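Researcher: Good morning. I'm working through a list of sequences from a screen, and I'd like to move beyond sequence-only analysis. For each chain I'm collecting a predicted structure so we can compare shapes side by side. This is the next one on the list. No need for commentary yet; just the structure.
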Amino acid sequence: MVKTTPFLQAIAVNKVYPGKQQSGVKGIDLSIQQGKITAIIGESGSGKSTLLRLMFGLLSVDSGRVEFKGERIWGPEEKLIPGHDAMKMVTQHTDDLNLFAKVWDNIAILLPNTNLQAKQEGTERVLKQLNMHRLADKRVADLSGGEKQRVAIARALVTQPEVLLLDEPFNQVDTTFRDGLQQDIRRIVKETGLTVIIVSHDPAEVLSMADELVVIKDGQILESGVPKNVYNQPKNLYTARLLSHCNVLMREEARALRVKGVKGQVVIYPEWIKPIATGKNIEWTIKEILFKGAYEEIHLEYGPIEIHLLNHEPGLFDNYSHMGVQVEKYLEY
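Model: Good morning. Structure tokens for this chain:
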């Protein structure tokens, strides 16, 4: 049997920042699939950005190895210009853009002048990939935050790297721009075989975008898998809280929802609770109704117990009236 060399991997990687609150990563083993989008998520300070920088070569490991196609990735102590030549990184900051130059020039400048036709074609290609032709003649200074982020990603892609690393790339981007940009990146991955690693704290970004989800806490990987599976069956309470604004109840409290848990804590996602308008057991008081457009988020209380659920029939209930609930699924920890 022929042994294949992993595409990009971290092997027993440690990088610790000393201090009262130790941070960094500890004993990380991670293999990145080629041609896929891998999302690394965790709370602020969990070590996800440190891991990304280690895999790019912007930081040196304390121990362990990072390898790309079987060869070690050198850190800044060994490499004059940090960062692996086959990779490009984009952060939420767009400070390296020339604000007073056109979008076209900001992208084209990264290609050599030795072949002007290739320079023209390469710039055209990335403008088309990211739906940016209408921006080509605009000054960067005149663009919105979301448009500037597109330029930053175009600059990263124009040299055709094998790996694109994205560190909280959509923080400064509004929802409309974010959704379109995510779709474009997914399409580019499918068409070109680009490998993407994205670091994020926002589940909305990664659940619809990633092929593989990696959850990190206190510098260690807790779990990983297909986003849909990790969301529906998280192995840890930390993961459930990270991915959903879930209801977390003690076992005794859950009995008010007719849930007979056997472990200490019960987790119920808002979409797993069905609102009931009429019939028996209409005992929950509606504390607040938050309009969300196509649905409502309803906050309920029953004595000292509070929960929230999603109602997809807006207008059916009023504040301070009562309703019943039916739990269709729950998790225990």
